Amino acid sequence: MFDTLQDRLNAAFKSLRGKGRLSEADIDATCREIRIALLEADVNLSVVKEFVAAVKERTLGAELSGALNPTQQIVKIVDEELVTILGGETRTIRWAKKPPTVIMLAGLQGAGKTTLAGKLGRWLREQGHSPLLVAADLQRPNAVKQLQVVGEQAGVHVYAPEPGNGVGDPVLVARRAMYHASQKLYDVIVVDTAGRLGIDAELMQQAAKIKAEVRPNETLFVVDAMIGQDAVNTAKAFAEGVGFDGVVLTKLDGDARGGAALSIAKVTGRPIMFASNGEKLGDFDVFHPDRMASRILGMGDMLTLIEQAEKTFDAEQSAKAAAKLTSKGGGDFGLADFLQQMQMVRKMGPLSKIFGMLPGMGDMKEQISNIDEREVDRIEAIIQSMTPAERDDPKILNGSRRARIARGAGVEVSDVNNLVSRFMDARKMMSQLATGGMPGMPGMPGM
Ligand code: GDP
After folding, report:
1. Is the shortest distance between the CB of 439 and ligand 1 below 6 Å?
2. What's the confidence (pLDDT) of residue 437?
3. Residues annotated in the binding site, as ranges?
4. Cys-Cys with 104: which of 108, 216, 319, 326 at CB 3.0–4.6 Å?
5. Residue 332: φ, ψ to 5°
6. Which residues fall within 8 angstroms of residue 51, CB to CB, at 6 or more apart?
7. Which residues participate in GTP binding (predicted)?
């Protein structure tokens, strides 16, 4: 899931690489690509329109941050807007003040309700609750048996109608289950209800009656993510016919294009609370909009890096450094500035970790793990042994100055020579890049 979307979004960002400043035309073109990517992923049209409009507005009005280049800024905005359409904050179960907490499952047949009841049961048990699963799906042949089987796998009790005793009336089963639970001190009750292959009035009525009987703290609409746009229509029908508090997406392990996941929270105004991604009981988790957004962008680490950079980088300092690099062929950018930039990068964490987080560095794992932090310490020591004048203008570094610096830093003169010549080369390169508009963030090539 999301593979195609991820590829297309990344392609949209890639075409911006190397651009220092984005023109309105660049932004328009990128937004167009984002729009196509979302539509191809089968995202609801109104959601797409709103999404793209928000990204465009925010990108046009974006404050130039010293820490991020324009592409990083767009990635960040798209990430944040994805989080928003996925529902924003992670939402978990609202527990009843006085137990039991009642959770009712509703949705079409085959959506995965019964399987979910088992998953929820196990998850609740792991959280220290004592849940009871209630078989109020009396429509589908075998549904009761199926719930008993998953209940056993999950290690939780199942309340099922006795044959001949109220069979056929799920409302009665629900009422008896509630009484049973109150006697046995279960603190969470999960009610599995019947679904139909398609939406129909009778199904809605029955679900609404069960709901009125058990008065759930949470009614969860369970929907198969594979059905794409239909998920949105079904959700609307359930919202009207039964009403629900949260959504559970199932079959996220399938090859659906992701449209359902990306549309449903926005269209229904209800959060996605859980996600199911397989047939086994453990294939299930609380839904985190932020994690899902990073997964869609496929740049979880990149986003972490962006966040850290924002926290660590002093925008004013970075802007000054960038200004020095862009004027006079970088002549004003001295070793002191270099040291300052290097120290900012280091504040973000060990260099090997920072490089490891850059996209496309996956194949370079070995080189990355060989980055010698001591080498960086040495560079710092050398620069710190220089006078301010020497740092500003390394050209004045004659032989005796170099010997003094080497002594002060506890290194060989050749180390000093090496650093100075590498600095001169690097400054030339950075200046060329910067005149192309690179922001004051060294060491993040390509993004
Ligand atoms: P119900 O009719 O809503 O109760 O649906 P079921 O729980 O019986 O599930 C219908 C089918 O979908 C079963 O074969 C399940 O094993 C399968 N299923 C449920 N959840 C998932 C999931 O997250 N991923 C996959 N691949 N299959 C699932």
Report:
1. no
2. 43
3. 107-114, 192-196, 250-253
4. 216
5. -80, -10
6. 34, 38, 43, 81, 85
7. 107-114, 192-196, 250-253
Question: CATH: 3.30.470.20, 3.40.50.2300, 1.20.120.140, 3.40.50.300. Which one for 3-89?
Answer: 1.20.120.140
Say how many CA atoms lie within 13 Å of 141 toward its Cβ: 0
Q: What is the pTM of this model?
A: 0.73
- The helix/strand/coil state of 157 is strand
pLDDT at residue 69, as a whole number: 73
The neighbouring-strand residues paired with 104 are: 191, 219
CATH number of 314-435: 1.10.260.30
Q: Going along 36-164, which residue ranges are E strands?
A: 101-106, 131-136, 157-159
Q: Which of 279, 280, 281, 284 to mutate to test the pocket of ligand 1 (most atoms within 8 A of CB)?
A: 279
Spatial neighbors of 15 by CB under 8 A, at least 6 apart, are: 29, 30, 33
Regarding the beta carbon of 139 and ligand 1, being less than 6 Å apart is answered: no
Q: In residues, how long is the chain? A: 447
Q: How high is the ipTM of this complex?
A: 0.98
Q: How far is the CA of 161 from the centre of ligand 1 (A)?
A: 22
Residue 144: closest CA among 122, 130, 123, 165: 165
Compute the distance from residue 276 Cα to the ligand 1 centre, in Å.
Answer: 9
Edge-to-edge strand list for the sheet holding 188-193: 157-159, 131-136, 188-193, 101-106, 218-224, 246-250, 272-276, 284-286
CA nearest to 66, candidates 304, 312, 300, 302: 312
Dist. CA 283 → ligand 1 center (Å): 11
Helix (H) or strand (E) holding 246: strand 246-250
- Alpha carbon 308 to its chain's center: 16
Q: Which residues of the chain have pLDDT under 50?
A: 362, 437-447
Give me 164's structure tokens. 């001949």
Burial of 426 per CB tally in 10 Å (0-12, 13-18, 19+): middle
> In this structure, how many other beta carbons lie within 10 angstroms of the beta carbon of residue 356?
18
Give the separation between CA 223 and CA 299, rounded to whole angstroms. 27
The pLDDT assigned to 7 comes to 86
The pLDDT of residue 444 is 40
Domain ranges of the chain: 3-89, 101-286, 314-435
CATH architecture observed for domain 101-286: 3-Layer(aba) Sandwich (3.40)
CA of 150 to the centre of ligand 1 (A): 12
DSSP collapsed to 3 states, 211-228: HHHHCCCEEEEEEEHHHC
* 137 Cα nearest atom in ligand 1: 4
